[in-house]
Specification:
24% strand, alpha/beta, Rossmann fold, seven-stranded mixed β-sheet, 6 helices
């Protein structure tokens, strides 16, 4: 069984992939992911907003105008790509190198928190989601766009079998039970919409 990666291993893996990351994901980003990311424009709001795992900045074009966004990522090289993209499109954003499992923010700080395709690669996703609950205001909201283990028994076993290979190549777990992890972190799930079968879902949650 593949050992769960620590944050240092995850950082090194995404640092290594940063330069080619957008190129490798272009087909699925162009034909599927971009349309789903566009939903963020209608969802993220408030005085303080946090994006977790900004990566190369693919969500930047979908930030509402004049929004005060702080964005974090574990990988400094991914942040470099995000900084370039933000400058190219004229988007102001505070970019910080930070581990979602240990956030340097006070309790009840953010109005809206969002992440897209992030919790497949967080070493301890429940710990990360609990940290997000800590820094979220009691009336705040969490928005996630995530891929996860399919509910179909045969497909689920296939994803389990393939997962060690995918993790080694890309750093992403394809068999995460993300809905269960959100509940285990004491978020109250309000929406769990299926976007592509039950593998990719749009999740909206509030602090319990």
């Amino acid at each position: 069984m593949l050992q769960k990666p620590d944050p240092h291993m995850t950082r090194k893996r995404y640092d290594r992939m940063a330069r080619l990351y957008d190129f490798l994901e272009w087909p699925v980003e162009h034909f599927r992911f971009a349309a789903w990311r566009a939903r963020l424009k209608k969802c993220i709001h408030g005085h303080r907003v946090l994006e977790v795992g900004i990566g190369t900045g693919k969500n930047l074009p979908y930030y509402p105008e004049d929004l005060n966004v702080t964005a974090i990522d574990l990988s400094p090289r991914m942040l470099e790509r995000a900084r370039i993209r933000a400058a190219n499109i004229g988007r102001a954003v505070e970019l910080l190198e930070m581990d979602v499992q240990q956030l340097d923010f006070p309790d009840h700080y953010f109005d809206t928190i969002f992440a897209t395709f992030v919790f497949c690669s967080v070493p301890d996703p429940v710990a990360g989601l609990r940290e997000l609950k800590r820094v979220c205001k009691p009336a705040g909201r969490l928005f996630l766009l995530e891929h996860m283990r399919p509910g179909n028994q045969v497909l689920g076993l296939l994803f389990d079998w393939l997962n060690p290979i995918v993790v080694r190549v890309t750093g992403a777990n394809i068999n995460r039970r993300t809905l269960e992890n959100v509940r285990r972190a004491d978020w109250r799930i309000q929406v769990a919409e299926k976007l592509s079968s039950d593998v990719i879902r749009w999740i909206e949650a509030a602090p319990e």
